[in-house]
Write a structure and sequence with these properties.
The chain has two domains: 255 residues, UDP-N-acetylmuramoyl-L-alanine:D-glutamate ligase, CATH 3.40.1190; 191 residues, Class II aldolase/adducin N-terminal domain (L-fuculose-1-phosphate Aldolase), CATH 3.40.225. The chain is elongated, with a radius of gyration of 24 Å. The protein is of the alpha/beta class. The chain has a nine-stranded mixed β-sheet, with helices on both faces. Strands 16-13-12-17-20-19-18 form a seven-stranded mixed β-sheet, with helices on both faces. It is built from 14 helices and 20 strands.
Length: 453
């Protein structure tokens, strides 16, 4: 399980700060550790009092967290004072954590100052250069760069300037823009616009904390910065859209509104574990492709990869059996999740998929078993799709579905230069997928016993 550390203030209302961060991290399937930088007395709409935690105690908390084991990502929020910023920067440098998401919290939604004026200098010179991603809103970007940020052009200028100041990537969030929200991501030397959709946003207390916590968790799961930023934007938009009309009253952002009920998540994971046991007993390891395999299963209303569970590290073959490297977890697979989400867009019941090796014999076995097969050819892939990392499978699956006019039993990916040919078996749940895989296996001669070891 990925371990995510949030370094932030305590929010007595429970909607933001440490409390909001830990809720999001946990609901995304990671383990949350915390370091508290300040105690606050606040409601969902007003900060009533702030008491910073001494920097020495912040440093001791950090030492204790790192002594417990590796941390996969850190997210910082309210840091309050200059000496706390310096203590955090020193600890991050020493721990060499691969991912730091810096959410430069300066003021509360109600306007209360949460970062001392003299903390700006160490924030910019000591902590910001350590960040894999910094996530300012419009006001924070303006204060960090010293220039006005009121539109997309200003967001792009600010993103480039913050990169020049040391951040590896910059995500300027545009939730306060007029019209539909738009985030600007500067990553790999270019700006990308991430368009959102207008939702009921009044009083969405904790949206910034939820966004940066989700971003850190997605990055720890191995997503690219672009993919993680897109997923985080989507999840927070869903959460805000689920808020009831507040008639001017601030409302804590309930992360549960965008994470389907925990019972459903537990059911998805249990179904994957059961199917994996069945698959292992079947001794079908010869169907594992060179790139290994994965088995995924989505929540009923899944819209993002974070709502699709699969096996981290994929599934390999050992002594002729399928063996999972790790237990199933949500957000664990980019590839199989893309296939499942594309299939669900065509038929919401098609929530599971698994990739197996492709060969003429295996394709023939699919036909002999009476399975419906669709296919796509990567040579037909449009240039924009080729340039957009991680979009090939979504495109190919949608092409195959469109040609078939339905969700088939399997989709044949013919592969390309550097891309192994693959068959992806689809179904309504993992048990159905494994049943189809076993049917394919019965229609083809299995390899010799010595080939299984």
């Amino acid at each position: 399980m990925r371990r995510i550390l949030t370094i932030a203030g305590s929010d007595s209302s429970g909607g933001a700060g440490i409390q909001g961060d830990l809720r999001v991290i946990t609901l995304l399937g990671a383990f949350g550790a915390s370091v508290i930088t300040a105690l606050t007395a606040q409601t969902a709409g007003e900060v009533c009092a702030v008491e910073p935690v001494p920097a020495a105690l912040v440093a001791r908390q950090l030492e204790a967290v790192f002594a417990d084991g590796p941390v996969n990502a850190i997210k910082t929020g309210m840091l309050a004072r200059a000496d706390t910023v310096r203590a955090v920067a020193a600890a991050v440098r020493g721990a060499r954590v691969p991912t730091l998401v810096l959410d430069p919290v300066m003021r509360s939604t109600s306007g209360t100052r949460l970062l001392a004026e003299d903390a700006m200098q160490p924030l910019c010179t000591e902590l910001l250069p350590l960040a894999r991603v910094v996530t300012p809103n419009l006001a924070e970007a303006a204060e960090l760069t010293g220039s006005g940020v009121r539109d997309v052009e200003g967001m792009e200028r600010a993103a480039r300037r913050l990169h020049e100041m040391g951040a590896a990537s910059v995500l300027v969030t545009g939730g306060h823009l007029d019209g539909d929200p738009l985030d600007v991501l500067f990553d790999s030397g270019k700006c990308t616009l991430l368009a959102g959709r207008q939702t009921h946003r009044l009083g969405a207390h904790g949206s910034g904390c939820a966004h940066s916590s989700a971003l850190a968790t997605f990055l720890a799961m191995g997503m690219s910065v672009l993919a993680a930023a897109s997923e985080a934007q989507r999840l927070v938009a869903l959460a805000i859209g689920a808020l009831p009309p507040s008639a001017g009253m601030a409302t804590p952002l309930a992360a549960q509104d965008w994470c389907t009920r925990s019972e459903e998540r537990a059911g998805v994971l249990a179904a994957l574990r059961s199917a994996m046991d069945d698959l292992s007993r079947a001794k079908l390891g010869w169907l594992v492709p060179e790139v290994r395999t994965n088995l995924g299963y989505a929540l009923p209303q899944a819209r993002t990869r974070a709502e699709v569970a699969a096996f981290p590290g994929r599934i390999t073959a050992l002594a002729g059996r399928h063996v999972a490297v790790s237990p199933p977890a949500f957000g664990a697979s980019r590839h199989i999740a893309s296939v499942i989400l594309a299939a669900m867009a065509h038929d919401r019941r098609s929530r599971a998929a698994m990739n197996i090796r492709s060969s003429p014999d295996i394709l023939g076995a699919c036909s002999s078993a009476g399975l419906r097969i669709a296919q796509f050819d990567r040579d037909d892939e449009p240039e924009p799709v080729r340039r957009h990392e991680g979009s090939s499978l979504d495109w190919g699956t949608r092409v195959a579905l469109r040609r078939a006019g339905e969700v088939p039993d399997a989709i044949c990916d013919r592969g390309a230069f550097g891309k192994e040919p693959m068959i992806r078996v689809l179904g309504q749940d993992p048990a159905e997928v494994i049943g189809k895989v076993r049917t394919i296996a019965t229609c083809i001669k299995a390899p010799r016993e010595e080939d299984l070891t």
